[in-house]
Amino acid sequence: MAGSESPEVLGKEQIITALSALKHFPEREVFSLLSHHFYSADEDVSIAAIRAAAWAQNLDAIPHFFQLIERAKSPVRVEAIRALAQIRDPLSVEKLLKYFPLYHELEVKAGILSAVNSIIPSHGSVAEFNRSILIDREQDDVLKEIAVRGLTQTGDFATLSYYIPHAKDAIRREAFSQILKKESGSASDFLWRMEEHAHTFTGDTLGIYLCAYLLKCANPKNNLILTLLQQADAANWHAFLKGILEHLSQIPSVKRVFRVMLLIPYLDEEVEKLTDRVLKEVMQLTRRRFPRAVNELISLTVVHLDALFKKVSKNYLSLKGVTGKESLLGVLLARLIERTVPQALVQEVQQHFKDDATDDALPLIEKIRKALEQKPEEEKRRFEACMPLFMEAERIRRLNTYTIVKNMNPENPMLLRRLTRVIRAIGWLGVKQAVKKIWEIHTYSRSEKVLDLEATCVITLCELYAKNIVPEFHQFFTHSTSQMPQSREIQKAYIYGARFLPPMEVADTLLMLLLRTDVEGGLKLRILDTLRMMDLKGLDRVSQALVRVFDTACEPGVLEMAAEVISRSCDATIFHTLLDLTRKQDPGVRIQGVRIVKALAKRDTRVPMEVLTNRLYQLLEDSDRDVRIESLYTLLDLGDDYASKILRDWLDSDDEAVIPPLLFRVKNLISTEELPHILRCIESPHKSVQDRLRELLPGLANGQYSLEVKRLLLQKFGEAPDEIQRDLRVREPAVFSEKESLISHAKAEFRFKREHSQVLTVFFIDIAGYTDRSIRVDMSSLMSLVKTFEEIVVPCVEGYNGNIVKKMGDGILAIFRQPINAVLSSLEIQDEVRSHNRFTVDEERFFVRIGLHTGPVIRKEGDIYGDVVNIASRMESAANPGEIMITGAVYNEVKDYVMCREIGGITVKGVKEPISAYIPEKVLEETVDVLSSQKDSYGAYVNEGVDSVFEKLKESLFSPRFQLPAGLDQSNGMYPLLQELFEEMVSAVDEISHDYHEEYAFKRYLQEKWNEIMQKLSGKGR
């Protein structure tokens, strides 16, 4: 509440969020606040405070952390130890080591050992302690890993050389990992000595060792690396290659690493992708740091290309001279088996065709099928096509197949895969002189139907922009329709390679393929990815064609990438076509449409900004949350003068569905106006909001708004000086121009609603049959009737905090902030009318009809407008004399307090769907009890812990009350002055809270302050 004397109490999650942000302000003022939370009863809060205070040389925190090490529970104790490691005070080392034998928890011991090695591993006591951990067999392996880490950091390889050969693999792994992280090459001798033990390394330790051996040794042996890798499993390959990628900056010789990457054998697709990454990174590093060495890499690659192609063309099972179906199947089977199944199974296949047809082939077939389980479906189909060979019983034909399969050699596919790797490297290096050789290999692969090799050649020829590659591209797509299933790999290669060709020459073909209905989503993504990589400026037809993608059923990924391509290539000539995307039924398409027009508007000054802004303001009321958020951020990004006020409103809404995505994208659009509203989100009870804030606040705390962030955070904790405390909650109403242009209608309407609308319950009442009665009776009788009607209705409305909007002769229009007030007032009115009729003659009796509806209402110049008003009027017209008719919106708010009878849907003019209607009949007993207690209470407001349902009821009925405390002389002349002052204050609060739905907070605040003043006057206050 604005102006309160103490800060709002924050819950656990809110405190943790604030503490995590305060971590970025290493100042004494902040530390004094953090230290209060070190000793919190909640461990999570304590840990958050410790982490926030763990900055380098925060010496004030050290006594607190040692106290926590002695007294706190284990999780807090461990966090305090970690904090000491971050403070890095050398004087803490000896004291920490003394705590080591006092605790038995492994996590605490590990924390202490890690801390001292982090602070100063070269300290004599620390180094000696590490050695003692290693030789003590009773110590846990986790502690030994930490000790090895410390000894490696200090370069104590004499100790490690003795210990590592006999250590467990996890400890060895730690030593080699730390060596990789060291900048110096002092570990070379140690790694050389480990060569003889390398064959004993298990897990991924061998891969990490080989990586350290390659990068840290002066003259590593390539043969050793290749031999050990050939014997290793995939985990070691991954560790080896990822280690190189992580420590590229330490490569002593790019040529050495590059040669090893060309030489290592093929293992599987995943490892090959990693190998390609290493090759690319080494090439880029060479161009940046060693440009003269690029020619050496080129020469090395060309030599490997020639040598590998000679071996492949000599040893690979060829289709040349093969005639007859059985011979063709035999070659296809042999190629399939040698590249997909283990060596033992290769030998079984060879033996099967060598032997007589006495054994059952089914067990062998099942073994092969099992080996092919993880292979592509195309490989499985090829094997099934070769099935007749296994069923052949004739001896001569089986021996013919044997003459083919006996030449199977698993080395052949490995050579082929290495050749494709070298060809890819030729393309990345841009070796133009190799084009002729690549064409030769391309011809060979096509004639031998080696699709992988042909596809690689196609991509490389495109990269090198080889002569005749563009005609080949068009010829392939012109004639590939009937071959598409057989040539899918080649098709993908041409699509990928097209990104290296002139867009003017290939874009139309790609677009034609993209818009075909028989092309699956994965291929469309490849096409769009290629278009995304092209410079499409000047090719207007591309954007126009891509818009048609949104008219077809596509995966979200296809639409997102299509939108990205359009955003880069479109211009203002198709603006209205693009804007139409924001009107599509699919919310995903609408979002992409917004993104496209935003990119266009930022790039092309010809975009009609008034039209775009108008549409974006319409989308702010879209049914889809993500569309609304995207539209708001587009307005902010385009510098709309009103969007920031809407953003502040949404941030203040405490809507769990809206605020997290808002915070996710708000980082680059923050100004000093939005900052308090973002920081106010700390008060949100929603975990998802707190999680987003914890991601956002570190960036804000370290940016240009750091001082303001600190001030606001301290204010949340109540630590800011009084002179800078200020109310950030009251929003100044923006000025609305009556002369807005028609093109800005949507913005004007949204702005008007924001500043003049409230969710209210509209109350309509009239006298049933008034028109007929006015014909039968004289004017004085009618005036008397209206006077009686108003004497009953007005007090009942005002008694339940309602406001009379206007009187209309036989009817009254009123509003209530809470639906329950409106219903209770209506029931009381009907009771009063029945009581009046019971004691009057027929001529003076009358009945009333009441209609209620809840929703957003426009309030301006003392009147109300909107659909809610019209629906309330229709409900009143539909009610029978003596009835109250309410809509479903009202019923949902009052069903816990009042018994209602459902009467079904009512058709209302101007509303498409029938409106559910209910008739309130009776106030529930629990509600009656609350109403009675509320009438008996004096100046009482709702306390914490009250049932939330009836808490809301009490709040809705609360009104400030004037009464002097007992003992104060009411005959004193001060009494009427105080009463007048109180009434003026009540009027002022009513005026202030007029535009706020939750008026209770204002009225309660007034009552609290008045009661304090009265207590002081009576001498009972402080």
Give an account of the 3D structure.
- The protein is mainly alpha-helical and 1022 residues long.
- Among the domains are: 318-407; 756-923, Alpha-Beta Plaits, CATH 3.30.70.1230; 960-1017, no CATH class.
- Helix 3 (43-53) runs parallel beside helix 5 (74-87), helix 29 (488-497) packs parallel to helix 31 and helix 51 packs antiparallel against helix 52 (1000-1017).
- It starts with 11 loop residues before the first helix and ends in a 5-residue tail after the last helix.
Q: How is the secondary structure organized here?
A:
Layout: H1 12-22, H2 28-38, H3 43-53, H4 62-71, H5 74-87, H6 92-99, H7 106-119, H8 124-135, H9 141-153, H10 157-163, H11 169-181, H12 188-193, H13 205-216, H14 222-230, H15 234-246, H16 254-263, H17 269-289, H18 294-315, H19 325-340, H20 343-354, H21 362-371, H22 377-385, H23 387-391, H24 395-405, H25 411-429, H26 435-447, H27 451-463, H28 469-479, H29 488-497, H30 503-514, H31 521-532, H32 540-547, H33 556-569, H34 575-579, H35 587-603, H36 609-619, H37 625-637, H38 643-652, H39 659-665, H40 675-680, H41 687-701, H42 706-716, H43 745-756, E1 757-767, H44 770-776, H45 779-799, E2 803-807, E3 811-816, H46 819-838, E4 848-860, E5 863-865, H47 867-878, E6 884-887, H48 888-894, E7 898-906, E8 915-923, H49 925-936, H50 948-957, H51 974-992, H52 1000-1017
